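We modelled the chain as a single entity of 535 amino acids. Its sequence is:
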Amino acid sequence: MSPIPATTGQLRTKIQDMEIGDYIVCKYQASSGNVGTFSELGYSTASEIPVEGSASPDGTFYLVKAEKGLLIADRVVQHSISWDTLNAGGMIQPSSLPIMKLPDPDELPTGNGQSTSFSPDGNYLAVAHSSSPFVSIYKRNDDTFIKLPDPDILPAGNSRGVSFSSDGNYLAVAHDVSPYITIYKRSGDNLTKLPDPSELPTGTGYGVSFSPDGNYLSVVHVGSPYITIYKKNGDTFTKLPNPSELPTDTGVQTSFSPDGNHLVVGHNTSPFVTIYKRNGDSFEKLPDPSGLPTGTGRGFSFSPDGNYLAVVHSGSPFVSIYKRNDDTFTKLPNPDILPTNIGRGTSFSSDGNYLAVAHSILPSITIYKRNGDNFTKLPDPDVLPINIGWGTSFSPDGNYLAVGHDESPYITIYDFHQRKIRSITGGVSYADENGNKSLSDQGFGAFPTTNEWDKYIVNFPENLIADGATLDDVFHWSKCYTWTQDTPDVNIQGRASDQRVRRGSLNAGHTGFPSSSLDPSNTGFRPVFQYKETQ
């Protein structure tokens, strides 16, 4: 039979489309004796890992949907690896899967992706880029991003900043060449350019941000006053008086706080970041934060609760994170591991638990997990952006992360669903014919009988096995023993605390108990993916 799992289900490209019995491709790569990495979920075209596994796999396997929120590998992907090594590498008990890149959109931006913005409902993604049409808008369908027709009138030049309004009905683009700011009104999938504001920015627009209520639009640019703030009335944007105290040089990026009461501007000279407090239509500069950025402030993101402000900048440590107390911003200790070079864009996730920083030099994107005031770097995504990372943004539901960057494909989108990887459970003892614990093998599998090996593999529904195929053609259990999570009951004769349970190979229900430190070529790792299913 073909190595593809012989179920009556379908090969899927998206986890959310899967029914029980369906399967999805995934890539796994590892060196001999070491835990590996997963990538290219749903779209890998690499050659298959042999069904008996490999000591140094570099290829694909399939995950079969066995239950709601549960996918089980159709084979052992790696043999000659001990249980202890798998455990030390986070592959026995549940641990977070690496952040995985989605397939590229069908139609790519035409130049460097310099800024990204999701619409508030997460259905649209705008990318500002360096070549005509200068802005590309994608519509999301689950994990697929489809480019929409270009707006009726394009930005006049290299686009550097982009922002959706809080209701998703307006899109602002900052760019080279007058009018330096172009504002579109969205109707369904169509974007129509509005008349230019009566007073324009004085030079190249670098960054743009709508206030959360959609009433204000901040544009930072070359040329004094370096920031231009508009008030929206219907489809009309009217320039407000300049703040009494201006940024010290060219405005590079800007962002409103979640409550709209604070406005941050990054610029080229010290103090590199200027924070304003809004009072009606007036913007008053606050005292500088304690611990200033060490170079040009190039990107900002407030946490959703407004308690944290991340600033990325051109000098080490390349990211500075401040904690806000009313109008006071106090710098926190630096993260444990810093971005590798100039910070250029940043975004908090919608729950405030993750912070993404786009920067120069690989890995081009660095992602932190927040625990209180501490930010700890996560493992790099499976596939990195190519060259310099510029703008980055999380989708409003936190399930996607977009990174604009130099070099094709110019936009890289990651699946940020929180999924777990682990090993299958296999029971701790033998079972008798009534499902009770037995100290000897009676041919009825393992206890408890709810263990996943017996529940989902041995008892995989026969009606989901393709005609003429067998269970072994679905899970290839005969080719290699599978390590499980479990430690055997030490009351079983000959069992010891350093042993672990392995299943399969001799027959589908076989249970064995080798030492956890052994790495035989007939025993290995069968991945299980678990995830929260919303439907």
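As a brief sanity check on the tokenised model: The chain is about 5% helix and 40% strand. The first strand starts at residue 11 and ends at 12.
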